Amino acid sequence: MPDSNDKISQLNDVAESYYDSGDADSFYFQIWGGEDIHIGLYDTTDDIGQASRLTVTAMGTMLDKALKGLGAAHKVLDIGAGYGGAARHLAKRFGCAVDCLNISKVQNATNKRLTAEQGLSDKVRIVHGSFEEIPEPDGTFDVVWSQDAILHSGDRLQVLKEVKRVLKPGGVFVWTDPMQADDCPEGVLQPVYDRIHLDSLASFAFYRQSLGAMGFTELAVRDLTGQLPRHYGRVAEVMEAKRALLSSSASGDYLDRMLVGLNNWVKAGTAGHLAWGIMMFRKG
Question: Which pTM does this prediction carry?
Fold first, then answer.
């Protein structure tokens, strides 16, 4: 059996190879609009880019309230930062400095370009690396932020330990993650696991129990599970509508497999086997 380090390394290699591929980069950039790559909030829009930005805005508002004013004095780390859209939003709206830690060199290059184009290179720093071994000193950040990235880890508990390590005392961890329901039956999520090369997902209970044991205090947990199947269903619809455009930069085989994967997420979410929401905890 592989040890934890082997599993982390293997899944990091899978994630980096996948997100660096031309197929994946074309799909995510064109379907999401080039800023964000995460689940959106669809109560007021069916546009994926707008819905995704609404998630960022909601998280930023929650964070601003928790800190009694997020501002230039605060330092934020976004783990699994993708194209850096959240970091740029936070830097623009609140004036804070944001470090983007991300494992994909292709996404990091796009992040660097977009950040420069938007005049934010003095506020947003891009770092290549993994969140199981964050390349920063202890107690560096006021905030750790993450959106729909921790599911890819081969050791989620290690990610949480690293989050705790790099946060200052009283610092805030705010994140989202596609998860399994707390009462999910055994075996029903195998089609989801197979598509994303995982053998499990976290849950609300996992995060509450793990962070509680580390001395974190729960500030807010917004269960927004209904948005998950809506999101993946909408992504599938837009992918099909843009298939001709996508086929010039993404292979037909990739798009076919992506559609199967999206439908698996929708089915599992509709059946009540998945969970998703915004979570915010404070380090003791």
Answer: 0.93
